[in-house]
Amino acid sequence: MGVLRKLNKIMTKRVLSAVIGAPLLLFLTWLGGWYLALLVVGLALLALREFLRIGQLTSFGRRPIITIVYCCIWLLFFLCGQYDWLLPLAALWMIVVFGWYALMYPNVTFNEAAFNFIALFYPVAPFTFLYFLRGLQDGIYWCFYLFLLVWITDTGAFFIGNAWGKHKLAPRVSPNKSIEGSIGGLIFALIFGIVFWWVTQEGTLIAIMLLSILTSVVSQIGDLFESSLKRMAGIKDSGKMIPGHGGILDRFDSFLFALPLVYFAIILGLVG
User: CA nearest 199: which of 159, 148, 155?
Assistant: First the structure.
């Protein structure tokens, strides 16, 4: 009975977080502009905090101050609308981090330098693609497409995996995930892509189908990547920000990989 009560409590927290968090995310995305920009910066900083905590637990991020300062500067340029500076600043970050490694070697290890280098490109920069995606023509449709596709992929993988999952997908990273569940997530995503095209007439049917499958695959890779970080650090959740779900990285791990993919697929004209 104690286990059942604990499980019920966890599920209640998850449902409440989803009921409150998902509509808020969708609403601020719909508003766009400064509302979405501030949301993006807030999420990026919270995710960075969790990522650096993982680094400290694994001894890869013992001196995170330089990373925190640089990422804040990078996000400040984003917030001020200086988008042309984002790529040069990202390139400069490589020089800063690995120059620091070269000058401080062997007191600074390569793993520590690499972890700090990744910090800008994994939990921070991908969030900004939500803002850029929203700014495209019909961007609100594509944002909702991305949100729903990732959520539907997770849902499909969960139910199909629980019903028919027998073969482990990545047992050392996430023992509960199965190959059957992963395929189920892909099928659900494909069906959603077809419905999205039928409702919105955005792009061509074949292109949307291919994008839906690829985005589903990439979102699952993002989930596994974040799980591997937690395994490395020996923790269950990246944080406690979202009751029942864990941290920001736990909730947005799939989106961080999928956002750039969808954005570039659209601006490169790959959706037709």
Answer: 148
